[in-house]
Amino acid sequence: MYPVSLQELIDEFNKLPGIGHKSAVRLAFHVMNMPEEKVQKFVNAINRAKTSVHLCSKCQNLTDKDVCDICASTKRDTNVICVMESPKDVTALEKTREYNGLYHVLHGAISPMDGIGPDDIKIKELISRLTPEVTEVIMATNPTVEGEATAMYIARLLKPMGITVTRIAHGIPVGGDIEYADEVTLTRAIEGRREI
Ligand code: ZN
């Protein structure tokens, strides 16, 4: 239906997450209508991001430096490390401005069903960062079966080292309704209660 190279562009957009066929066609036509220099800028941005962004040698978050800005900062509390599954989780927590410690990104969670074991995520890298300076590790993996299993696995490794391992509280979301909360969520909410 379309010239081959245009069809190829549509197919590439179609492979992106959340982009269906209709959106892919719309985006491809949008590119066709863009001035040459804007297309070049877009292509360069993709290339540059892909070639310059890599994992921070300390926390494994995405960065374009050897050590990311959070790890390099002198204003962060280096006694606490918050362990998260993905760089997007770090961004979400940073937005709250409530946390001032360091991070460690696992890039996944243990999931035997999917063939993902402890060696497939960045657990070794976490262990190698645990100097006596680190007093607390916060397990902020997702409240899924995989996230819980990962939190438990890491807690079991760390506790004999004398490090306090904590788990983020789970419960009723803000704006949520207790009546419609599932049993597990309600149980967690009661377990994680605190004095007000
Ligand atoms: Zn870092």
Give an overview in words.
This protein has 196 residues and is of the alpha/beta class. Helices cover 42% and strands 13% of the residues. The protein contains eight helices and six strands. It has helices spanning 4-14, 21-33, 36-52, 69-72, 87-96, 123-127, 145-158, 183-191, and strands spanning 54-55, 62-63, 77-84, 101-105, 136-139, 164-167. The strands form two sheets. It has a four-stranded parallel β-sheet. A two-stranded antiparallel ribbon has the order 1-2. Helix 1 packs across helix 2. Bound molecules: zinc ion. Zinc ion binds at residues 56, 58-59, 61, 67-68, 70-71.
What attributes characterize this protein structure?
alpha/beta, 8 helices, globular, four-stranded parallel β-sheet, two-stranded antiparallel ribbon, binds zinc ion
